[in-house]
Amino acid sequence: MKISDGVSGRVGLILASLVFCVTCSCGDPEPSPGGNGLSDQFETTPERFPIATGIIDEASGLAASATMRGYLWTIQDSGQPNSLYLISKDGKSIKEYNVPGSNNHDWEEVAVGPGPDNGVSYAYIADIGNNNQPVTSTNIIYRIPEIKGADASFSQSALQRITFSYPDGPRDAEALIVDPVTKDIFVLSKEAQTNIYRLPFPQSTSETMIAEKIGTVPGVATATAGSISKDGNEMVVRTYLGVYYWKRGNGESVGQTLVKSASKTLTVALEPQGEAICFENESKGFYTLSEKGTVASASLNYYKRK
Predict the structure, then answer these.
(1) Contacts of 257 (CB under 8 A, 6+ apart)
(2) Could you point out which of 19, 151, 218, 246 has its C-alpha 20 to 30 Å from the C-alpha of 261?
(3) Residue 151 to residue 157: CA distance in whole angstroms
């Protein structure tokens, strides 16, 4: 999503030099039954890994690779290539991979998770934004098996298209969560009231699905990215100004968790135009990434679990 769509370049530059420090007024919650037992405390000052300019200046979405340890996937939004970018966790290596057969209308999110073939890890690319007017009546989520090595390439024959529409009219959205437990897909709209929409597994790749509206995320406006831990027990949703954290209760669906107020509001450094977040696979922390916006460069930020 471009700065002109709601956040000015001047504001983005100012925000880049500040730190957002908000804590939940209700205090730390008791651990959720059936949770992973890990602490819900994270460092508030990130490890910063500079990202070279000119390659992924419009980063919008972030996901930890399940097939290549130590690497993350990102994408760029409208006007940029229909490519996945593989980033090393120190930010020093960035490699572009074209996704043949796809089209970047306005890619806004990427996730990694299970899919129709057991034991296969898939990349989910969400073409769900509205940078290009008019807003389309349908949206596409591309699903493709992850490559297993840096020298491999994506195959057009393996690409699947999940086409869907909303039950209550077109929406702008930038956040996607793929439940590793149920394989359901959840889309969060980017509005003053964050709506939750579900595409239940198995998703059709031949007909247009109508997403199921689950409800709204309390207290979260203009969601720009989301992520779920590899075990499915933790979730985060970010905006330009904050990160919200949930622990999934025993027997709860993703939707049942997100319609509750966040367990915590995490303290994170502000970014020029933050539109990407993901847990790392080892559950040691989470990463954020921003578009470069109007500043000289962006960084990959890592928040270690305490």
Answers:
(1) 235, 246, 247, 248, 249
(2) 19
(3) 18
Q: How far is CA 261 from CA 26, 44, 112, in A?
A: 11, 21, 25
Find all residues with CB under 8 Å of 76, minimum gap 6, and list them: 56, 57, 58, 59, 60, 83, 85, 104, 107
> pLDDT tens for residues 54-78?
999 999 999 999 999 999 999 999 9
Residues in contact with 134: Cβ distance below 8 Å, sequence separation at least 6, in sequence order: none
The residue length of the chain stands at: 306
Q: Could you give the dihedral angle defined by the CA atoms of residues 123, 128, 131 and 136, in that order, rounded to the nearest 10 degrees?
A: 140
| Full-model pTM | 0.89
pLDDT of residue 127: 97
On whether the CB atoms of residues 180 and 231 are closer than 8 A, the answer is yes
Q: Output the CA torsion sign for 236, 10, 50, 99.
A: positive
- Do you find a cis peptide bond into 202, omega within 30 degrees of 0? yes
Nearest-angstrom CA–CA distance, 65 and 122: 9
Sequence-ordered list of residues with C-beta below 8 angstroms from that of 282, at least 6 positions apart, any chain: none
Residue for token digits 């390439």?
153
